[in-house]
């Protein structure tokens, strides 16, 4: 059981976070028969905490009342490690939990929607630790064989595996914010091939978006929201397609005619360059020292 206490007359008043018997599971248990609690993490604001245990459950508690408010359950698996997304990854209602399991799987749970957002399998063996990057966009996980996987928390793609500690269990992963020394995302602009009066612009600002400016009207006529700050931009010369590359190893293709968008992964580094061919049938993207060629259907 997990107890919380506060000073009281003559000592400490204690309150148990598990005031009811938990179901037995198939894993070895302490002598009193309750599943072992493996991790406790706290929300960035300090209003809630989350616990995980051998029975595969992840529980979220309100610290003010010590009441159970949310429970996620995975059957026939032990939940071994847990992490709460940082404050900077979004609004408070967008907070998420990353949970690692004995079969090597990693699940992302939405606290606000009380639902599993994503399941990935970055490890072949049991996870021992997990943490979010400081921006909440990346999940780092370690396993009992010493491998560290770096995965995208939105797409589930594992884009890097570190084996420097192979042979010894990973006990902890700590992250820190990178000092940017005032570096800002690039400012990018391009005229629309399908309408010479329109100019598309992306750059540093409060909102992550593509701004479409009409030169004849001398005003902004449309804004296209983006998930991250753009690193590269290209417009199709024959179709109303917009390609945007991001530092998060992701490429987004936007159909400006319908307003729909589709995301693609495949790079291991920031997509710093994207270019449509004159025929508009191919799209070249570059990240560090690699180039990917994408075929555009329907052109």
Automatic annotation (TrEMBL):
SUPFAM superfamilies: WD40 repeat-like. Gene3D superfamilies: YVTN repeat-like/Quinoprotein amine dehydrogenase (2.130.10.10). Keywords: Repeat, WD repeat. WD repeats lie at residues 37-71. The keyword Repeat applies. The keyword Repeat applies. Transmembrane segments: none annotated. It comes from the Eukaryota. Residues 36-180 form the WDR90 4th beta-propeller domain. This is WDR90 4th beta-propeller domain-containing protein.
């Amino acid at each position: 059981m997990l107890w919380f206490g506060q000073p009281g007359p003559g000592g400490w008043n204690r309150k148990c976070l598990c005031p009811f018997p938990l179901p037995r599971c198939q894993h070895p248990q302490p002598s009193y028969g309750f599943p072992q609690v493996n991790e406790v993490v706290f929300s960035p604001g300090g209003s809630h905490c989350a616990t995980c245990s051998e029975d595969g459950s992840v529980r979220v508690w309100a610290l003010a009342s010590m009441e159970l408010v949310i429970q996620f359950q995975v059957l026939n698996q032990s939940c071994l490690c847990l992490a709460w997304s940082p404050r900077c990854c979004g609004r408070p209602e967008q907070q998420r939990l990353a949970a690692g399991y004995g079969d090597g799987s990693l699940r992302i749970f939405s606290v606000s929607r009380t639902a599993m957002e994503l399941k990935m399998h970055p490890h072949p063996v049991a996870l021992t630790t997990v943490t979010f990057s400081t921006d909440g966009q990346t999940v780092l996980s370690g396993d009992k064989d010493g491998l560290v996987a770096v995965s995208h928390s939105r797409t589930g793609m594992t884009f890097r595996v570190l084996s420097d500690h192979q042979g010894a269990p990973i006990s902890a992963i700590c992250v820190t914010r990178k000092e940017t020394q005032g570096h800002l995302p690039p400012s990018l602009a391009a005229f629309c091939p399908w309408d010479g009066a329109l100019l598309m612009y992306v750059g540093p600002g409060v909102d992550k978006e593509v701004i479409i400016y009409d030169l004849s009207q001398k005003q902004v006529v449309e804004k296209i929201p983006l998930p991250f700050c753009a690193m590269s931009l290209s417009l199709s010369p024959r179709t109303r397609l917009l390609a945007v590359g991001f530092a998060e190893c992701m490429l987004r293709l936007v159909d400006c005619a319908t307003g729909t968008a589709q995301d693609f992964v495949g790079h291991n580094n920031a997509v710093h360059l994207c270019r449509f061919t004159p025929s508009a049938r191919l799209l070249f993207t570059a990240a560090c020292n690699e180039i990917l060629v994408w075929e555009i259907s329907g052109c």
